[in-house]
Amino acid sequence: DAGVIQSPRHEVTEMGQEVTLRCKPISGHDYLFWYRQTMMRGLELLIYFNNNVPIDDSGMPEDRFSAKMPNASFSTLKIQPSEPRDSAVYFCASSLGSLTDTQYFGPGTRLTVL
Amino acid sequence: GENVEQHPSTLSVQEGDSAVIKCTYSDSASNYFPWYKQELGKRPQLIIDIRSNVGEKKDQRIAVTLNKTAKHFSLHITETQPEDSAVYFCAASDGNNRLAFGKGNQVVVIP
How confident is the model at residue A1, as a pLDDT? Predict the structure, then answer.
């Protein structure tokens, strides 16, 4: 298996633009997580899905952030409109059958909002 | 919610010496405690984990110890090597089994 795949790896955009980050979890994994990593706040859980259903989005910072998982092999995290404070590395991770199974992280998307 | 803190924030050790990183957590319901290693510019990767029914776990040069009474757990790296230089994150599950991560410890192994 190729592991968790994320795209794009780098994204530079201007304030106010829409940004869409993409993730393909490991095949057969039931859980998918979106994290944001910054120097100030560390690694923060934004939202997670179980069997494509959003379970907990309490970490999503604002209504500007939304996430979907239309099928078991694809998820998106969208920011609209983007702001400079959204600049961070966004990681997607997946785990097999429970929240406390090993989480496998993707390579991350480094987002810069100018 | 769960609050996880790591100390020290940066640790420098001579190659061959041991490194110890300590994490404290706040939720007494926590029962799963993983450690992740993140090399510069790379993704976090699980290196070892421990569950609340065990006090210690070892895997070659790394070990984790858990003290549930004091609500802390520690990562021990023996015979450190340059490739151990990285940021290490601890995490603890909260009452809903979600992971809360610490802010990371930068470990620098000096050759």
Answer: 61
